[in-house]
Request: fold
Amino acid sequence: MNFLEERILKDGVVKPGNVLKMDTFLNHQLDMQLIDRIGQELASRFQGAGVTKVLTIEVSGIPIACAVGRALGVPVVYAKKSRSINIDGKIYVAEVESYTQGLKNRIIVSKKLLSSRDKVLLVDDILANGYALQGLVSIVEDAGAEVAGVGIAVEKGFQEGGWRIRNLGYRLESVAIIQEMDAKTGKITFGAPNE
Amino acid sequence: MNFLEERILKDGVVKPGNVLKMDTFLNHQLDMQLIDRIGQELASRFQGAGVTKVLTIEVSGIPIACAVGRALGVPVVYAKKSRSINIDGKIYVAEVESYTQGLKNRIIVSKKLLSSRDKVLLVDDILANGYALQGLVSIVEDAGAEVAGVGIAVEKGFQEGGWRIRNLGYRLESVAIIQEMDAKTGKITFGAPNE
Reply:
């Protein structure tokens, strides 16, 4: 069992509706040593892949993305969830369904931040159905850039996101993959990727 | 002129309506070396202040808060802007007006993440009118915790936030304080805090 799986067993709480609360260490409250270790682990798996930029989506992907960007020595870009008056000019746009909020978000990235020369590593804290990642993939494609791969802290292997991303031909690396979890017993089982 | 002031002169863009775009290095895209240096600078100013936790508010405060938390060796908590189904149980709540979005947000922090034993350093990327910070102060007070101080990357010295926070008796440290900026000429002038 690796360091993140151990931490999930220690502090993660399974709730009904396939919800895994990790708000004391991964989102809401951040254990920076853990976040940095996840960043270093993901960076080491994509070392040599020629990554020029890390791309994530606000909010909870940002700390992990920062740790990966630091470890790879590349800038981090986070897609924003709605058009603020602080973003003018040309933007890439994608529609993303939110699992936890039950609504559609428009995500945007300023065009000046991605170019056709970029090799982009997509990073997020949790992979469930993969909708957020699909939005990010679509933005990278709009920019004519290349997806170097996908780095995830916690993949819910019993949801379709991981399968979908791997089936599209992208290299997906998750530090922890949950194969089963049970809200009644609190039991969490880890495993290898579903091919 | 310090490293952040130099970077703002180089890459910041003044827009009408007191907007300073720093989206190529401080928010939207993150220069991790710069972010880390800001974090180390703020951490060094509050070294010895007994900080047990860094508190910020989503979204753009998170990278700086992570860098400060890492440098001080304490956990980071970010207040969330709306109630998601992933937060149950007891929460602290404050109302915050958003300058850039022109609407009121409810910000929340899970009660289990702040206790009366905490000395909390409030961190944000930009200080303008100080509404977000006032919301965070109110949450720290609700928790019976102590505000150890306020650390800011870029303070707009010509808006009332800095004055307001210092007048409340809190120690406020900003890495760069903008005294004047002009959308027509693009000129930006830095200075010391307004007392």
User: Anything to note?
Assistant: The mean pLDDT of chain B is 93. Chain B touches chain A through 38 residues (CB under 8 Å).
